[in-house]
Amino acid sequence: MQITSPAFKENARQALADPQLQKAMLHVRSGFIDKRQHAVDALPEFEALRESARAIKDHTLAHLDIYLEAYEEKVRAAGGHVHWAETAADARRIILDICRAAGARTVTKGKSMITEEIGLNEFLEKEGIRPVETDLGEYIIQLRGEHPSHIIAPAVHLTKDQVEADFRRVHDHLPPARDLSEPESLLGEARRVLRSQYFQADVGITGANFLVAETGSSVIVTNEGNGDLTQILPKVHVVVASIEKIVPTLEDMSQILRVLARSATGQDMSVYTTLSTGPRRPGDPDGPEEYHVVLLDNGRSAMLGTEFQDMLRCIRCGACMNHCPVYHAVGGHAYGWVYPGPMGAVLTPSLMGVDKAGHLPNASTFCGRCEAVCPMKIPLPKMMRHWREREFSRGLNPAVQRYGLGAWAFFARRPRLYRVLTSLAVPALALLGGRRGRFRHLPLARGWTKHRDFPAPERRTFMQQWREREVWKQEARV
Amino acid sequence: MSGRSVILARIRTALKVAPDDAARASAVAGRLAASPLGVIPARGQLPQKERVELFCRMAEKVSATVKRVRKAESVPKAVAAYLRARNLPASVRMGADGRLKAMPWTSVRSLEVKNGPAEPEDMVGVSHAVAGVAETGTIVLHSGADNPTTVNFLPEHHIVVVDAKDITGDLETALSGIRQAFGKGEMPRTLNLITGPSRSGDIEQKLLLGAHGPRALHLIVVDGG
Amino acid sequence: MDTRAPKPPRVGLFVTCLVDLFRPTVGFASVKLLEEAGCEVDVPMAQTCCGQPAYNSGDRADTIAIAKNTIEAFEEYDYVVAPSGSCAGMLKKHYPGLFAGEGMWEARAKALAEKTYELVSFLVDVMGVSAVKAAHDGTVTYHDSCSGLRELGIAEQPRRLLASVSGLKLVEMHDADVCCGFGGTFCVKYPDISNKIVEEKTANIAASGADTLLAGDLGCLMNMAGKLQRQGSAVKVRHVAEVLAGMDDGPAIGRGKD
Fold first, then answer.
1. Do C226 and A462 touch (CB under 8 A)?
2. Interface predicted TM-score (ipTM)
3. Do A397 and C258 touch (CB under 8 A)?
4. Pick from C147, C179, C230: CB nearest A451
5. Which residues of chain C have pLDDT under 70?
6. Closest to A291 (Cα-Cα) out of C178, C180, B190, C170
């Protein structure tokens, strides 16, 4: 997809002025946070599990090459095919070849952020193959020609009324007078419409939450069951997964599963956790005849061994964005690419370049809530700061900011000069503040006074007053 | 193979490791062989009776319904009762699972039992779980010649029989049962861990049951001897 | 036999640049609270700022220079105390990382980090203060500033001391632990987003019914005060130390003499 992250400020401005979006975002704030807290509180071992999950991923990343080889061997032994894709373009071509070989005209898709990352839908459409998203949220945004605004709740930016309007527009074969006023009726309609699609599809494409090296299994974690219908009904199942999805064993998967759903939706377990290993076996009455895994790098190997390696622990639960005040304010689309919120603010510059995505790691108050809830203990603010350092050292931030900061730092490094300057400036500013004790406009702080008053200083600096107090004390002693 | 060798080389360069590092290889081989256990929640570590009760409670918490019966022979009657209570047609779909087959289905008059993978028009599927997991109320099902996976997803109602003795306290114990049955490192084509009926919160975060999979999940727990 | 009382701990007060420039009352309130708790307080003149504006803008070289200045100014004291969770967090949690692998400076940064505390948590956790001798007639609500809460675990301590203020009634606002939208330079780099976040905050403040808003960080307080005043709210805004020290008779933040 086209990256609009460079226009983050403008995107945000529009998002803030969009009443439908603002209404929809209220559901994020009220829903996810309480449910997660409830699930976490009910499991005394949650903190220990976070630590365990973190250690598993750190170990796996340190041995990633060997685990990938072990995983590949098991997939092959189970009769599956493994394809290695360096780039998004490689992955698209590999998937197209598989679809062509299967004579595919329609493919169904389970929810997969990785296929968003490689822009698969647009590509397949151009090649004459019809992709059908089957996750309810993904289906809705596909109808609208949009991209997900949240990694686990793709249509979280929409209201029920908007969905109803889209269904009436697209499902024009259904009676216009039908009642779609309740979410239940919308869900029922999507279920009926999509049922036939599963049976028409020649290829089913899913992502993966885990790849288990021990068994060669791909694992999807879902609530709707669409991912399962996508991977068992068509004759070809294609799994698209990035290389860091590997976990060593079933036990390791179990550890991370315990923190995944609790962090994401506040469930103890998602409804469907499904392990797929190879194609259907001799005698199996159903299941795909072919099983392919496309392993995607697309910039991840370059994060290993850097200050951004910890980001590769991410399990895409969405807790960071669910708890982010900036995400709450502007929604996911403002971030301008596939991954929004704090995890996107770290990942997008890694994958697309900090020159394009520089706003994202800056658009954070560093409130630290993301790191506090991250089940994999990823130090998200710290990594956003690393991006700011890279930007700064490359001179990518705006000149006004650099000069302002430079001037301030010049004085902050020179205490005597700083004292002199502040003891002159503060009383002057206090005087200007007058009886009101605040400013409605300040020429050098327009960003501030656009929305709020600026409190004027008290009479003089603390240091001036303190020094007088000390002198006075000494004189009193003499 | 070029993508493969490039990616592996990049990873090794980034990690500053050599491709033939014996210590790293043995660390991986060791973990894969030993499958070390991590943190196991105390919640499910209970004696059999309490464990089964926890399983039922957790399953009900996620909107499954639970019926407990004494013996496997009572299952067909319990299925028929479920269908009657919900005004469903007296017809069920199931695979050729030996444990289900051994049950006296013909004892229930006018109950049609269709074998084989599910069809789009099937209203009710019946499966036999290989395990239940008490900590989360999860059932474990796997594919095979006698166990079509479509039965678990296509019908609107899914009835799953689980033996009380197969209910484990935690997920790891259930998965180690699969490992014992299929061999270390081997798996059935599809292993389903199912926790409640299908649902979606995609419209205004309102939780609705029956998104694409079954609207209703009914568990019949066979307490046994 | 030595009958003298044990030597009082020597505390270097890190005033913080915002308190120094905008709200000296908070500095004097801090001195009073620390002295009442039995500390000997000194204010080294060589201090300026903790360096966060540079640090969070990615300017590592200036941050390191400022950090060295702070370390030199404060390493002689038994404790370093700041009336700010954010600045104390900078010294305690971030300084050591700036000098990772740099031998002496790393050791000096770590030593400083170990003895650095935010004011209220220092009073409660280190000095064992469980009550203050202050009175405040009114209903207050307390905002948990992010760094103090999440980097230093400050939540219970200010509430405990506030509970001991005679006449004071504490009511909790909804989402007291959610960011106010200040975020240092964030609020001027992304003013519209910051405004949206602080609007949520002031709505929660208003809904609490409190007549006074308290918090432990002047940056957040100036942000919330500025928004409340722009909205025409009558809620008064003060640093928690002002109330705990009984120094809350002057004008509230941004209030002047009107």
1. no
2. 0.97
3. no
4. C230
5. 1-5, 258
6. B190
